[in-house]
Structure prediction request, 421 residues.
Amino acid sequence: MDSILVTGNGALSGQIPIAGAKNACLTLMPATLLSEEPLTLTNAPRLSDIKTMTALLQSLGAEVSTLQDGQVIAMSSHDLTSHTADYDIVRKMRASNLVLGPLLARFGQAVVSLPGGCAIGARPMDLHTDGLAALGAEIELKDGYLHAKAPGGLKGAVHEMRFASVGATENIVMAATLAKGTTVLKNAAREPEIVDLVDCLRKMGAQISGEGTSTIEIQGVDRLHGATHQVVTDRIELGTYMLVPAICGGEVELLGGRMDLVGAFVEKLDAAGISVEETEKGLKVCRRNGRVKAVDVTTEPFPGFPTDLQAQMMALLCTAEGTSVLEEKIFENRFMHAPELMRMGANIEVQGGTATVTGVEQLKGAPVMATDLRASVSLILAGLAAEGETVVSRVYHLDRGYEHVVRKLEGVGAKIERIKS
Ligand SMILES: CC(=O)N[C@H]1[C@@H](OP(=O)(O)OP(=O)(O)OC[C@H]2O[C@@H](n3ccc(=O)[nH]c3=O)[C@H](O)[C@@H]2O)O[C@H](CO)[C@@H](O)[C@@H]1O
Ligand SMILES: C=C(OP(=O)(O)O)C(=O)O
Prediction:
């Protein structure tokens, strides 16, 4: 298994291009199942998760090809040969469950493995199935698989979710595009990836309003057609690289960065003494003066502070002046990076969903292990700021969500290399 060697190298400056969003692309790809005409995505990120979704769609009989070094994904679901998302694929990647809504809507049947849990916590699907049942689907659990059918087609309904789940919103909205009549989804998720999905569905002929708010209304149509759509900027990759000058010093411009994607995160950076400025090409970030200040952070659904940036923010706060309290409210087990950061000299106490971080003057390089996607990049950030060498093992987690991480960080002066095993 490959590892990454990082050697602390002081302040880092330059530009980093930001890719299309993994979490948007992984919901846009299953949208191809809603139409027999081709769907083309541009600005796709080059990630192993995208390859996993490609394999899943191909296992259903869809044609998927990647062009322009993986940045364009051309898909066609004219004839499908299967309606089953196999456990072997779903257990690798929870986003596989996003084929449920589209398959059910267009074919009236779907068999999708439950994802089970992962390193960060449980990944239940009750909110997805409750919403689809409200649209008339009959769903039962057999052998670890959800067997869903809607022989007479789905019917629009008013449905309120008890929690604004991103995945459930995506499945329900996609299913409702082909349902008979109007669906009103209340307490819907407001994440930019939902807005991007709705933009794409609208290009395919769907009639939807209210995306980006808590109430989304979908007027079902008989069929959707082909479209071409550009994947929105990855706000999590953006936030991650915004932390490079914050933790190391220097000034970095994030090409393609947008303030509206990272509002709550920028507020916390500002309180910590980091300046973020809009430029013609994106966002420019640098430390205002001296050491970063401690700040308290609570993860929340959008527009709150994202759970997917909590591990990276913790790496920064390990070096801050004072004590910060981080509360993780989305996933019950998302502090696996804390003990690894402590191997680098960080002072962190974890109790349940709360981590108390008292900043230290200097982190020290160490061999550490990535336990999940965002944990792995938090260890790289810590390694960039640490004295000496840090070796991050199990980097296959990183490949799920960060394209060309070595090249991007070398571009701003980091000493980083991938060690092939
Ligand atoms: C609200 C939130 O921050 N969602 C994040 C979540 O999306 P993802 O779609 O994976 O998860 P959800 O938005 O559904 O929310 C997660 C929370 O809801 C609970 N839950 C979810 C579905 C369900 O049917 N029943 C249920 O109880 C989960 O146990 C968890 O506590 O992970 C993605 C990858 O990290 C992030 O990009 C999303 O921003
Ligand atoms: C945890 C993540 O992804 P997934 O939900 O696909 O596991 C993530 O993007 O940080």
